[in-house]
Amino acid sequence: MGLALMMVTFTFAQKKELKEAEKAIKNNNFASAKTQLDAAAAMMSSMDDKTLAKMYFLKGKAFYANGTANDSDIAVALESFKKLREAEAKTGKKTYTAQADEMRTEMSNGFLTKAQSALDQKDHASSSINFERAYRTSTSDTLYLYNAALLATSSKNYDDAIRMYDELTELGYTGISMDYRATEIETGEEQSFPTSVLRDISVQAGTHDKSRNVKSESKVGEIAKNVALIYIEKGETDKGLAAIEKAKNTNPNDYNLILAEANVRYKLGEQDKYKELISEALKLEPNNPDLLFNLGVVAGDQGNIDEAQSYYDQAIAADATYTRAYMNSAAIILEKEQAIIDEMNALGTSAADDKKYEELQEDRLNVYREAIPYLKSAIEQEPDNINAVKTLMNIYSVLGDTPNYQAMKAKAEELGGEN
Known about the structure:
The chain is mostly helical. Among the domains are: 2-95; 178-215; 337-415, Serine Threonine Protein Phosphatase 5, Tetratricopeptide repeat (Alpha Horseshoe). It has 20 helices and three strands. Strands 2-1-3 form a three-stranded antiparallel β-sheet, with helices on one face. Strand 1 (178-184) and strand 2 form a beta hairpin.
């Protein structure tokens, strides 16, 4: 009888504390609600699953405090809702889970608003925190966790970033999605639809045509690259390379993963390995101007000027608008001038030396002439490229081409870059 009376007393106390907490929450008195819930929590061992679920539901509401809670209290709220689901999973009845899910949607939207606001203010650390919170309230939206990891990386919160990248990897996250598009007939603009069904309805209604599906690229390589670079930044290169190798085991032919390793190797100063990997990626995308350009940069860094020029020309052939290839081509051509100047300065005053000097001077002018087409093409693609304009202006000055010099001088003044 004594034991029975004790159990009745405990049960009555639990219900009383929870009832008082519920009343306090309705009155927005969250501090009082927390006190009542703390008292109830002392009797958790005697609670049945139904009562336990209610306690976790109320605790989540109390600690969330209608969105006014601090970081630590929000973490408690999210954990409480998680435990609520676990408790009701045992009973098979979702008495509070449905209400909690509605609240979680509200929380998620609030976190997303805060995440976007912080991102607009370039506060990547706060944005990362809120994107992760949005994910914790809606774990099917793994993109939120990916965004949180990226922003943690950019704000140098490396431990949090690694933790989230590891979680994404365990979840098998690839980031691949399908974008359902169709062109609006009236405006001629291509639009995206959330589902293929909605897109197809618009096409059948005659408002849209030219429907197509666009598959996004995998994020596996980006994740592996970021993890590797974080470990390298922390001085743990072996862990970084191990992360890439792990990703390659499941995605051996992933184009972005090859690029990820190439970037890491480049950061480590392993230029030959970088070239090898970029060449491997080039087999998958033979007309990729970025890859060709990068190979040109490495070749130039290694002093292989002809090879560099070849890659730049290939990049231009692949994409005639690739301004950087034009600029780098002009740069490596103009670098030839220094060797000519050095040879000119080393000459004596004999007749033979004077003749040689004239030959070298002509070679120097030919260097300028060789660079002109590349600089002109760069300006055609980027009319406001002040570096190309000023370089071309100086070349025309040396060549004595007054009309073109005046034209480039006027353009430089227009761009505000003429001294």
